[in-house]
Structures are given as structure tokens and as C-alpha cells.
Amino acid sequence: MECFHRRLMDMFKERREASLHWSSDVLVPSAESRMLAAIAKSRCHRVYRANEAEFEVMDSEGNVVVDVEKRSCLCGRWEVYGLPCSHAVGALLSCGEDVYEYAESCFTMESYRRTYADSIEPVSDNVEWREKVLKIEGGGDGIRTPKVTGGARKGRRRIRPVDNGDRVKRLVHCSRCQQTGHFRTTCIAPM
């Protein structure tokens, strides 16, 4: 646990410091590179506007429908990745929209910095833990653990056969040959 704690402390510190040196103000670098690739690829698309929100985008693979209002594209990449695909970028650029506003908020620099803004507090040696546990148990001001109740998992009671013949077995009946002693699935009578 101490190893995980130290690794998390280091990771938060490194990511906090690295984000201060990034040049982009809108998206994190990985999302920015995807967005730039989509913008470059969208230059090869033909865009036809159907109405205020829907577009038909033609590329080398075929026609794709983009709905800007629903933030969806027929290729499915926009919904899966949270960033506009090249079809959506082409549609957004054709109507003069800012493509960066259509990226999910988790890819923004603000969201990233807010995620790693708080630091993970250092933890003292376990000697002090024991003292605090004793204080908590003695004073009763701490977190109480639930009571441990014994007992195994209760299962169903099994009905055991009686040897003296008091228990009557249910007769099974075949629906195909009308005989007793077997089911339709195990019937061997000719059809």
C-alpha cells in the first residue's frame, strides 16, 4: 500500500508540473493532436448541409450523416472517443463553428489541471497509526467497525428420500407417445 501511495503522489506531482508547460490553452496534447489530424483529414471531404443540424459528408469510403446538435456521426467515432471525427470537423468548419467547443470537457486543459490540482497527502509511519487507533477505540469518536456475526451461509434444506415408502414419487408423462416413465426429449418411440 505504501508503494502505491508513493507512486500516486509522484504521478500527481509530475502531471501537475507537466501541464504547466503545455502550449495549448484549450485541449490536452493528446486530444490536440487528434483534433489536428481530423482537421487535416477533413479537407478532403465534401460537405452538404441538409438543415441546421444535419450534414451529409462524402469521403473516399462513402457518404456519412453528421448531426451536430446530437453530436453524432454515422461512423461512430465522435460518440466513442468524445472528439469530433473528420466528418464532424468538416461539417463544423463548413458552417463556421469552432471545433474545439464540440470536444468533451474531459479533454480540456482546465479539467486536466483541476483533476491533478489537489495533492495526495503524505502518511506518517505506522507507529502513529496505532496511537490514533487506541485513542479512537478508547474515546469512541472514531469510525466503528461493523459487528462480526458468525455462521455459515444458510442454504436450502435438502429433501432426503424416505426408505419406508412414505414419500410418493411424481410420475412423468411423455407428451409424444403418451407413455409414463420418460419425457418427450428422451422418447425413443418411432414417430
From TrEMBL:
Keyword RNA-binding listed: no
Domain spans labelled SWIM-type: 64-96
InterPro entries reported in the protein's UniProt record: Znf_PMZ (IPR006564), Znf_SWIM (IPR007527)
PROSITE patterns associated with the record: ZF_SWIM
Keyword line: Metal-binding, Zinc, Zinc-finger
Annotated GO MF terms: zinc ion binding
Signal peptide positions on this chain: none
PANTHER family registered for this protein in UniProt: OS01G0595300 PROTEIN (PTHR31973:SF93), POLYPROTEIN, PUTATIVE-RELATED (PTHR31973)
The protein's name: SWIM-type domain-containing protein
